[in-house]
Design a protein that fits this description.
The protein folds into two domains: about 110 residues, P-loop containing nucleotide triphosphate hydrolases (Rossmann fold), CATH 3.40.50; about 80 residues, P-loop containing nucleotide triphosphate hydrolases (Rossmann fold). About 50% of the residues lie in helices and about 10% in strands. Helix 1 packs across helix 9 and helix 2 packs across helix 5. The model has no long low-confidence stretch (mean pLDDT about 95).
Amino acid sequence: MIIGVTGGVGTGKSSILQILNKEFDAVVIMADEVSRDLMMPGEESYLEVVRYFGDGILTGGPQSPIDRAELARIVFQDPEKLNALNNINHPLVRKRIEALLKQYQKEAVRLIVIETAILIQVGYQDLVDELWVVHTDPEIRVQRLIDSRGYTREKIADIMKNQLPDHVMEQAADFVIDNSADLDSARRQIEEHLNRFGIGPSDRKAAP
């Protein structure tokens, strides 16, 4: 079974992924990590991005790592360049994820999870059997981000404004996890839902 997990900033997606990985033996593919790997020297995204943006985005000489902070500064000041970066990166990330899915399916992995905050926007629904959206009450999300990341309310509002609205994500979902309470509550929701597909907690749950 392949599950896509998405949700807005501060909803606690990482906690849901941890439950799925540690307690249900899920293999987790995080699109952001795939993207970072593809931006390493010699990888496909790296070559295309440097070709488009030039050596000025590198930390040193030729074949040195990309200065991600400098690249972010450039693209977020110029929508055309942001669009160009996305057009380079998103297809290559999807290609790598598709390759990973084939690999894990050959290995008979019973549960595979793809996580990205922009799962719906980049059209990954056709890669998954179910789309899960993590929901958390807005004020709880704000407080979590203030406590864990030191964000201001203004910064949080700006991030949320640029993400897909919760109701749009939830309308597209096959399953919505309410992560407004404690993790035990989220765990019970996950277990009850997966039981419908004959998937229960793995033996690793009891391991130290």
